[in-house]
Amino acid sequence: MRTKMAPATTHQTPAAVSEEVEALRRQLVALQRVSSLGVLAGGICHELNNALTPILNYAKLGLRNPDPAFRQRAFEKILEAGQRASAISGGVLGVARPRADRREPTDLIRLTKEVTLLVGKDLSRHRVHLDFQAVGRPHARVNPAQIQQVLLNLMINARQAMPEGGTLRVRVGEDASGRIAELSVADTGVGIAPADLRRIFEPFFTTKTGPDASGQGGTGLGLSVCRDIVESHHGRLRAESRLGQGTSFTLRLPVCPAPASAKQGVA
C-alpha cells in the first residue's frame, strides 16, 4: 500500500524574505552598474590611449634632448597626461568596485565632473555637445559610487535620446534655500509622452523599442534603480519632458558641511 506524500512547503519568516529581497536589490544595482560601464568601454579605452600617447611621446623627446628647460616642459606634459589617465581609471574603478555602503561628505561638482570625463568620448562619437555649469561648491553625505552610477545612467539615457546628436546640459548647484543640492541632466532629444512619463520609474517599463545604433536597448530597470538609490540617500529624483524638445532629470539631495580638508583647499 502506497502512502501519499504531502507536497513540500517552505515557510520563510518576514525577516528572511526581507533579507532575500535586499540581496536581489544589491545584485540588480551591480548589474545595472556593469551595464552602464559596458556602454562606455570603447570610449574609455580611447580616452586612456589619448592620455598615454603624450606620455610616451614626451618621454622619448626628453630622452633625446639634453636641454634642461625642454626636459622640464616634457616632465610637466607627462605629469599632466598621467593625472588625466589616473582620473579616468579612478573613475572607472570607483563605479565598478564601490566600497561598502559608506557615506561621506562629497564634493558634488568634482563627483559630477568625474562622470562627464567617463562619458565624454561616447558623447562626441554620437555628436552630442556637453554643456556643463556649476554654481558654488555643494557637498552631500553620500556613497560616491552610487551617485556616480545614477548620473552615469542618466547621461547615457540622455545621449540615447538624441540619435541625431544634440546638447547634454549638466548643472550642479543648490536650491534657493541653500539646504538642497540639485544635479540636473537635460537633453534636447525626442522627449517622453505624458502617459509614459508617469511610469518611467516603474520596474521593467521602458520607452525604448529596441537596440539603438550602439546596440544598446532598454531593460526598464535603470531608472527604477536610480530612484531607489536616490531615495535611500533621503533625496528625490524627478523628471520633466516635452515631446520633440527633450527631457530633464533633477536629483535633489540634502546638503552637508564640507569637510575641513575641502575648506582648507578652497582657502
What does this entry look like structurally?
- The chain is α+β, with helices and mostly antiparallel strands.
- The protein has two domains: 26-91, Helix Hairpins (Orthogonal Bundle), CATH 1.10.287; 102-261, Heat Shock Protein 90 (2-Layer Sandwich).
- Helix content is 51%, strand content 18%.
- It contains seven helices and seven strands.
- The chain has helices at residues 14-64, 68-96, 108-125, 144-160, 194-197, 222-232, 260-266, and strands spanning 104-107, 128-134, 139-142, 166-174, 180-186, 236-242, 246-254.
- A five-stranded mixed beta sheet has the order 2-4-5-7-6. The protein has a two-stranded antiparallel ribbon with strand order 1-3.
- A hairpin with a 5-residue loop joins β4 and β5 (180-186).
- α3 packs parallel to α4 and α4 (144-160) runs antiparallel to α6 (222-232).
- The longest helix is centred in the N-terminal third of the chain and has 51 residues, at 14-64.
- The radius of gyration is 23 Å and the shape is globular.
- The N and C termini lie far apart (89 Å).
- The relative contact order is 0.12.
- The model has no long low-confidence stretch (mean pLDDT 81).
- It is an enzyme of class 2 (transferase).
- It comes from Singulisphaera acidiphila (strain ATCC BAA-1392 / DSM 18658 / VKM B-2454 / MOB10).
- Residues 43-257 form the Histidine kinase domain.
